[in-house]
Amino acid sequence: MPEMTLLGWFHTVLGVVALVSAFYTLYHHKIISLNQISGRIYILVTLIVAGSALGIYNQGGFGIAHWLAVLTLVAVFGGMLMEKLQLFGKYSKYFQMLGYSSTLLFHMIPAITDFLRRLPVGDPFVDSFDDPLILSFHLLFFVIYLGGIITQGVWLGKR
Question: Is the pTM of the predicted complex or chain greater than 0.90?
Answer without folding.
Answer: yes
